[in-house]
Amino acid sequence: MTRRFRRSIFGLALFALVALYWSQSTVLDTTESNPSVDFEFPEIVNPQEPFEDLRRRYLTLISEANEYSVAHPPIRKRSWQDRVDHIHANALHHYYTLDKHEYRTALWEDISELTSSNLTATFYRIGSLAQAWATPSGPLYHNQELLGDVLTALRWLVQRHYNPSITRVGNWWDWQIGIPYQINDLVALFYNVMDADLRTSLTAASRYFIPEPIKTGANRVWTCKIIAVRGILDSNQTELDLGSQNLQDPDTILLDYVESGDGFYRDGSFIQHDTIPYHGGYGKNLFKGLADIIYLLHGSAWELKDKRIGHIYEWAVNSFMPIVWRGALFANLRGREISRKDGTDYHAADDVITGMLRLIQIAKDEKFVAKLKSWVKFNIASARPWHDYLDAAPGSLYRAAADIIHDKSVIPLEDLSETVWMKKSDRAFMLRSTYALALSMSSDHVSTYECLNHGNLKGWYTGSGMTLLYNDDLGQYNDGYWATADMYHVPGVTAHLRVRKPCSGSRYVSQDGRTYGSTSGQHASIGMKYLSWGRTVNATKSWFFLDNEIVCLGAGISGIGETHTTIDQRQILSQRRIYLDDIEMPHESTFNKTYSPHTLHTIRLQSNVEEASDIAYNVYHVSENLILRKDDRTGSWIDVNNGHVIQDTTPFQRKYVTLYIDHGDSPVNASYIYSIRPKPELIPHLRTFQVLSNTEAVQAVQSVDKRVTGAVFYGKAQVPDFLTASTACSITLTASETDGYVKVAIELPATPDEPAYFHFKQLAPYHLRSQVDGITVLSTDKTGIQLAMTRASVVLDFVLH
After folding, report:
1. Angle at 402 (CA atoms; ends 398, 408), nearest 5 degrees
2. Among 683, 710, 735, where does a domain finish?
3. For 472-511, what is each residue's pLDDT tens digit?
């Protein structure tokens, strides 16, 4: 069954559910739908009635009822109605399965077990009913029978399961964030039809469990927002003061850049839980939540005026724009959220796009707004047809997003060609218009992965050199990949095959691990000294981002037990062709083939997408067996996450091609050289680079045209006839094709106590274009250029004499 077919079946099912409702219209007494409900949005909150204005403004943030307009072009009108149909179909399903009996023990049978996650899920299902009740042009809009049942269910919930007499059990997040957040939305949606006693009971319960802001990062933003909105809904100035002022409290460092621990870093990194790169989880929630609060309180007595609020615009550009590609947020920044059925890369990116759209509404800098609009348009338009942001956009932003898409004056991001190195999160990205590669590593300050609350049970190696290649196959990592992939053969990783227990090694930080990186803009040199959890694998690994090729080196590989380096593991449609050394392999449903040592093997996989680029892999100087495997893998989401509010035990199957190098049993000083070509048609030559060094001391490559050179030094070492470095570092040199300049990027692990020295032999005909602080030119002659450096990183321009 193809992906498109599975998605079409789901859409037909939703349509059938709505059709069934209309065919049985006697089941509910519906009210005629209003095609458009508009909310006034004052620029400045009325100081005489601030809570009323802010309450109505909050309603615009969460309601689906305020954006549809019959004046919109037909294409947007149809898209909006499809969205409304989905909201009502989902709610109809929950409404028909709601237990309405007087002596019920749960509201829904499938989440009847008394766990904190099920309690949160129950509130969110009621939230879906409330949203449908408030959304025009659907069968449940302002339905009185539904309203009565929902309010009765809320009374039942707060009396039995969520009030000050209840002892909190399970996950704190459910009690102090998940449920209070939903209570605010329910009170806002039902404000004019909910009796005062029920409203008081709900807000009092929320206040008991979360009386003041707590935690750090996204959790702090969530709790501040909960308390501020609760103050708005309760006309409680003290609470609104508490929520808004705590966001700006210098002691919380929420709005500051950090140098360790949780928060945003100057290099674009975002960390949560001390050692986990989490842009695609807590980071996106912080970004979106903060943008919403800025918008909500704008023009009121509680407007956020701290100068540090401006950092959110820097975070938008430096932390989030580089990590979303064609509407997908890279999985290596999503932590344990990759193990959730309802949490794809696209859903994660939706929150970032929402935050960007909110900033577009409030930002005053025209160039910044234009840049964000260009980025938004590229990511919404290029994600189709796999995913459409308009299906998920908040109602208050639907029109803004649609207008950007249809505005011909907005030019989408194009000619993308850059590399990004986020040192503090050990992440690197190669970004091109037609593909992107995301690399994740670990070190003495970044964990290999996180397993928490029974989520991400098998994420063992997702931070150990994992390389994810994104291309025209938009569903590659978003169609059950993490529930069915072989997690002992994660792409890019060198790992042993000993069986691991779920959650083993969670948050492991290797005190011996180190990472290095530098980028000249378009190219990058990245390296890692790797020691696995349990000390079963030791390796020196590096990645060099060239023009349209990623060169991967490994040296000093030692392992305990069977040890493999996985080149890639990709989902593939059964009819797609595979080529080995330019010869098409016979079509077989499954196989496991071993190829003996050889000077060079080339493997090419036909794309799952018609008329899209294949992927080519070149494996050089293979001294060990190369394995090519095609198999069907069966899994279910509960295999990788049995603690999420949405649990699915249904097994499903995907077909994979896996390519790996077998280093044998307990290897000593093994090595590898391979390259990945995301668009092989752009590289007519078989060999485009030479390896200058592949040892535990230094790994280095140079393109055959000598335009790009990259080296990672793991201590004092030299690359004969090219480079010498006195300390561990990464160096990337890129020569201009036209103007005679050479750009040299150098990055050390930290600012050195003593000067670091470098000798660039290939720069003999060049001189430094201008003086740079922390850089001293010691000599320039026919043997090259010698430099001393007293700073942590630099990008230098050299020009021909």
Report:
1. 160
2. 683
3. 999 999 999 999 999 999 999 999 999 999 999 999 999 9
